[in-house]
């Protein structure tokens, strides 16, 4: 027998129906709270433009700003976009330092601390993309290049 969920107490429903209700409720609550699942690949991600030089996906500053929570944290270093979500708890300075720059450019703070060559090398593991040419600050022939670190 099928009943509308609103008319039947939960204890009378089949376990499959209860799981379905819980799943729908969790999805609604997550959406209402603004949770974004980083593992979901959208159609936009599949069609994302790539940088001609580096072949990295291009993310705008506005797109990076959407990744500013503990469970989905991106930062920008030297015009490159890094997903540091998995590194949050491992960061020697604590996750609050990364959260201060979540969704924004952290280049000045990164450079000011004087990270080691090993720390700079470990960044490649978290690299997800690059800024568009018109939004880049550290590109071209300026003094702030990776080679000058």
UniProtKB/TrEMBL annotation:
The keyword Transmembrane applies. Gene3D superfamilies: Cytochrome b5-like heme/steroid binding domain. Residues 56-132 form the Cytochrome b5 heme-binding domain. It is found in: Membrane. Pfam families: Cyt-b5 (PF00173). One of its GO terms (molecular function) is heme binding. GO terms for cellular component: membrane. SMART domains: Cyt-b5. Keywords: Heme, Iron, Membrane, Metal-binding, Transmembrane. InterPro entries: Cyt_B5-like_heme/steroid-bd, Cyt_B5-like_heme/steroid_sf, Cyt_B5_heme-BS, Cytochrome_b5. Its main location: membrane. Belongs to the cytochrome b5 family. This is Cytochrome b5 heme-binding domain-containing protein. It comes from Meganyctiphanes norvegica.
């Amino acid at each position: 027998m099928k009943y509308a969920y609103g008319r039947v107490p939960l204890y009378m429903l089949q376990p499959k129906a209860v799981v379905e209700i819980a799943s729908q409720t969790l999805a609604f609550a997550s959406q209402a709270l603004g949770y974004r699942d980083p593992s979901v690949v959208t159609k936009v991600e599949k069609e994302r433009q790539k940088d001609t030089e580096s072949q990295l996906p291009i993310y705008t500053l506005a797109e990076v700003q959407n990744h500013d929570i503990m469970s989905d944290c991106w930062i920008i270093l030297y015009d490159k976009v890094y997903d540091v979500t998995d590194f949050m708890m491992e960061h020697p300075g604590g996750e609050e330092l990364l959260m201060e720059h979540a969704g924004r450019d952290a280049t000045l703070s990164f450079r000011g601390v004087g990270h080691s060559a090993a720390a700079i090398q470990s960044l490649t593991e978290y690299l997800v993309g690059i800024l568009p040419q018109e939004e880049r600050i550290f590109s071209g022939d300026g003094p702030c290049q990776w080679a000058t670190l």
